[in-house]
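quick one
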Amino acid sequence: MSFYLKRLGLEPAKDFVVLDRGPETGGAWQLRWEALRVGSAHRINDLPGMDALGISFEQADRTLPAKEVVADFYRQYEEHYGLQIVRPADVRKVFNRDLDLVVDYTDAAGTGHELVTDVVVNATGTWGSPFIPWYPGLDSFAGRHLHTSDYSTAEEFRDKSVVVVGGGTSAIGFLMELESVTNDLTWVSRRDVEFLDESEANLEARESAVAMQDEAARTGRALPSIVSGTGVPRTRRIQAAIDRGLLAAKPMFSAIEPDGVRWADGTFQKADAILWSTGFRPELRHLAPLKLREKEGGVTVGNGSSWKDARIFFAGYGPQASTIGANRAGRLIARQVVATLSNL
Ligand SMILES: Cc1cc2nc3c(=O)[nH]c(=O)nc-3n(C[C@H](O)[C@H](O)[C@H](O)COP(=O)(O)OP(=O)(O)OC[C@H]3O[C@@H](n4cnc5c(N)ncnc54)[C@H](O)[C@@H]3O)c2cc1C
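structure w/ flavin-adenine dinucleotide:
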């Protein structure tokens, strides 16, 4: 967004300001787990104009954690383009005060600040809104519940019994990491996981998944899971894990008990930890005072902005929630923002 706003003639820190909870560069990537590598799940697209710096994710070091590589590339990028991002700036709420649109945020010291603005572009991603579905007995579990966003290293689970929940690439990545350290490892998924031959219908599947997200965003429904629409690419590592029997998901358990999970047939699986790789929801809490949410659970977004309040834009929301979608969104929304400002 900032790159394109600048290209359209707006000056960072003067005509527009970027607030980021941070704490460092790299967006959600800086907070992801140690073992994740660039290219280990999906492609990470370069930011627009990144070639001017002589860096590209295509040539990134795949022996380093992705969290470090992305944070480093994004830091260089911000410096090169002089984006002057304010960090850490945690936006607590966006609200109307008479005709003013006000953004309320806190700095590193917890001191509150207010900015009055004509337009807000919300590009807050999903990392801050982990989603754990409810199952009977959820609160009774005496072991450790953790979500993808809490996962750090496999070593924490040495000699433990772990149940991994979820049918996406994160769950599969965790199973492959945990396999050699845990005492026993169980995989459960709400639906059958579809493994795709990479060269095969992948693109088509991706398009239909994006269309599903787009449909939901346009009608204000809660966003569906991306993986439920795309399937999981059968990389060489994943195929090898399927061949050795690691990637056979059981159907969901029927209840959680203090020491483990109970299957529908009455049998029991002991668990020290349940790892919920059950996805994220868009992080929109700070927009609550604007009352943009529909009763269907989502926000209606068409042409990049809220149907209810055309001053609130969404970048990276729904169908745009990947590095490739976010790039495209940045360009389109920057144009719309400039058009809105010109009308004012
Ligand atoms: C486990 C996982 C793996 C993924 N792998 C890939 C992949 O390989 N390739 C790919 O293209 N996509 C991948 N994605 C999708 C991912 O969403 C994108 O890569 C990318 O992070 C989206 O960028 P973004 O800027 O929209 O969101 P984010 O990277 O989440 O950035 C949002 C920013 O907003 C800030 N923020 C949030 N709330 C506030 C607030 N209230 N106040 C101030 N700042 C705030 C955050 O601090 C953060 O810096 C993956 C997602 C997950 C969960």
